[in-house]
Amino acid sequence: EQTNQVLAYLKAENEYTEAVLGHTEALQNKLYDEITGRIKQNDESVPYFKNGYWYYTRYKEGAEYPVYCRKYKSLESQEQIMLDVNEMAEGLEYYDVSGLEVSPDNKILAYGEDTLSRRIYTIRFKNLETGEWLNDELVNASAGGAWAKDNSTFFFTTKDRTTLLENKIWRHKLGRDQKSDVLVYEEPDNTFNIGVYNSKSNDYIIIYNQSTLTSDYHILRADNPDGDFKQFTPRETPHEYGIEHFEDKFYILTNWDATNFRLMETAVSATERSNWKEVIPHREQTLLDDIEVFKNFLVVQERSNALIQLRIINQQTGEQHYMDFIEPAYVVYASTNAEFDTEMLRYGYSSLTTPNSTYDYNMRTKEQVLMKQQEIVGGHSPEGYQTERLFAESRDGTKIPITLVHKKGTSKDSSTPLLLYGYGSYGYSVDPWFNSSRLSLLDRGFIYAIAHIRGGQEMGRQWYEDGKLLNKKNTFYDYVDCAKFLIEEKNTSPAHLYA
């Protein structure tokens, strides 16, 4: 009876929507065709190098699913198709492949397959030399996992069938039935997400446990797959941190006595917190967001004044520099950097006017090459649009960043339509990414604005703390006050402000 009531309610809502928006049907169809017309169908990712192979993904025109490929040593080599998901999905209403992991000897591919749209995967294995699938099938799993260095041991995660939460980590030996797999870790607390992965150095297999306020890790050398996992440091609440292996030590990004996080290190033989030593101290105005470790370089991703910065540190000399970006607001991030011993940093860049771009940056010489920029079918000229960074004053005096974009020549007055977007929860920062769909608004004279309200992390960890729990009202006050500011500054009027 309740199901029927819900379905009847949804049907009534849909009928109401159709009645109210019926007169816009022709415009809806025009916008749909306009937006999808900008998407390149036969696209291809930028190849990245890992363990002797160039890996990339491509799409065939008119086909729905990706084709996963690689080439040996050179991009001039013959293409090897690892998986053509279009062929694998034939005859199925839903199909998803995720979590591709190649064995250290490059011979066996593990991947997760979901045919139900429940994110309950079956992990399958393919011999990349013969093209044949192995008999091994690991059911009720999460996609992804970690290979040991023996090329025959694979660690993976299974789910609780009632809650669908990951709760167990197993050790599987190729050629054996799943029933003989060994349970190596079980998480009793269902407030934690868990999983298992290889360190970038490939020397360690790492189990992670993550809740809202607490992190926990267990480590095992990848050349000792039958050994016991060791807890990195005793679990504490609250304590959020992440780890990355480097030679004879681990780097630790931690909020221990550091609201905006700090970078520490410890010897692989003594990982308990009492042994950690500080590398980069805590800073009041700068959030330490992430790190990328190379043999000779360390890349630190930071947030300051609602902008992301990349800081390059030479591990040998101690010299460091920040990369320069000229736009007033942008997104930058370390992209796929699978190789450990390289001077090249692969990074991504985007802004409200610049399509998603991939660069290779030489961390020693500071030279860079644009590897690919998202192609907008029909063309797009970034110089025809303008990005601005403003600051509105919230009712408690706090300055709230706003990023906006409009087509050059768009008038700013009481008749200008403005769409104001905001989120402000879970510490999720709304960064100014490019979106080709948005061009349909901008080209019709809209201003698009993002209010970087409290509850996100754009201005550091305290920005999140000041927009949650008993401070949650700030999230909504900030949004309202940003709207009032945009009206007062003559960008739009209450009649043409959309939320």
Account of the protein in words:
The protein has 499 residues and is mainly beta. Helix content is 12%, strand content 39%. It has helices spanning 2-21, 25-36, 85-88, 439-442, 461-465, 473-488; strands at residues 48-50, 53-58, 67-72, 80-84, 96-102, 108-114, 121-127, 133-141, 146-147, 153-159, 166-173, 182-186, 193-198, 204-210, 215-221, 230-231, 241-246, 249-254, 262-267, 277-280, 286-293, 297-304, 307-314, 320-322, 331-334, 344-350, 357-362, 368-373, 385-393, 399-407, 418-422, 447-451, 497-498. A 5-stranded mixed beta sheet has the order 29-30-32-31-33. The model has no long low-confidence stretch (mean pLDDT 97).
Topology:
Elements: H1 2-21, H2 25-36, E1 48-50, E2 53-58, E3 67-72, E4 80-84, H3 85-88, E5 96-102, E6 108-114, E7 121-127, E8 133-141, E9 146-147, E10 153-159, E11 166-173, E12 182-186, E13 193-198, E14 204-210, E15 215-221, E16 230-231, E17 241-246, E18 249-254, E19 262-267, E20 277-280, E21 286-293, E22 297-304, E23 307-314, E24 320-322, E25 331-334, E26 344-350, E27 357-362, E28 368-373, E29 385-393, E30 399-407, E31 418-422, H4 439-442, E32 447-451, H5 461-465, H6 473-488, E33 497-498
Parallel strand pairs: 31-32, 31-33
Antiparallel strand pairs: 1-2, 2-3, 3-4, 5-6, 6-7, 7-8, 9-10, 10-11, 11-12, 13-14, 14-15, 15-16, 17-18, 18-19, 19-20, 21-22, 22-23, 23-24, 25-26, 26-27, 27-28, 29-30, 30-32
